[in-house]
Amino acid sequence: MIDIAIQKSFIAKSSSGLNLKIDIKIDSPQIIGIRGVSGAGKTTLFRMLSGLVIPSSGTISVNRKVWFSSDNRINIAPQKRTCGYLFQEATLLPNFSLFENIRFANTDLSPLEINEYLKDVDLQGQKDVYPSLLSGGQQKRGALLVALAQSNDVVLLDEPLVALDTESQTKVKKLIKRIQEERNCTVLIASHNESVFEELCSQTFTL
């Protein structure tokens, strides 16, 4: 179960106050869509859930463990939150091959399992390639595998289909659904792609 009731206050360049208020409850592991126009706060929500941005007030709890509480002065460090995160810009460790990036994300995975993940998104031929030599779409798919490979309660996917062609998008959507079911985790997807909400998400929230 995930319970999010948080607020983030901003000061714009015009000195006018901006507030982002979010109240979401997710009772069981599922795929959740986060919809909103650019600047609505989708990425900020993900950064607060992951611990990279501190909310101004409120609480975040996952499976009855409090990750953040302004009243109780609790703020669990990002590395201690069971949370995988795919950023809008693909992020892979530059000194590791694609295979090594996935293995580093989850050392419990066997080489066979990693190779199967790579095959699912047509990256088996690039497993020994370093990120700088991958195309933008390949880096995106590789970073997605890193986020999904981890044993986490929550996986945050920020625009997972950007920079992917139609065929790759279809394969990525199938992989997200399969891994969510296998790992019984909650996946939150922020996207402007309506097919994500229609094909994957059991609930959709709009910011």
Describe this structure in words.
The protein has 207 residues and is of the alpha/beta class. Helices cover 31% and strands 27% of the residues. It is built from six helices and ten strands; from the N terminus they run E-E-E-H-E-E-E-E-H-H-H-E-H-E-H-E. The protein has helices at residues 42-50, 98-105, 111-120, 136-149, 166-183, 194-199, and strands at residues 2-11, 17-26, 31-35, 57-62, 65-69, 74-75, 83-86, 154-158, 186-190, 203-206. The protein has a five-stranded antiparallel β-sheet with strand order 2-1-4-5-6, with no helix packed on it. A five-stranded parallel β-sheet has the order 7-8-9-3-10, sandwiched between helices. Helix 2 packs parallel to helix 4. The longest helix has 18 residues, at 166-183. The two termini are 21 Å apart. The relative contact order is 0.19. The model has no long low-confidence stretch (mean pLDDT 87).
Give the topology:
Elements (H helix, E strand, L loop, with lengths): L1 E10 L5 E10 L4 E5 L6 H9 L6 E6 L2 E5 L4 E2 L7 E4 L11 H8 L5 H10 L15 H14 L4 E5 L7 H18 L2 E5 L3 H6 L3 E4 L1
Parallel strand pairs: 3-9, 3-10, 7-8, 8-9
Antiparallel strand pairs: 1-2, 1-4, 4-5, 5-6
Helix pairs in contact: 2-4
Radius of gyration over alpha carbons?
A: 17 Å
Per the principal axes of the C-alpha atoms, what is the gross shape?
globular
Main sheet characteristics: 5 strands, antiparallel
Main structural class: alpha/beta
- The fraction of residues assigned to DSSP E strands is 25-35%
Output the helix-strand order.
EEEHEEEEHHHEHEHE
- What ranges have pLDDT less than 50 throughout 5 or more consecutive residues? none
| Biggest sheet: strand arrangement | 2-1-4-5-6
Mean pLDDT: 87
| Percent range of helical residues | 25-40%
Distance between the termini: 21 Å
Q: How many strands?
A: 10
Total DSSP helices:
6
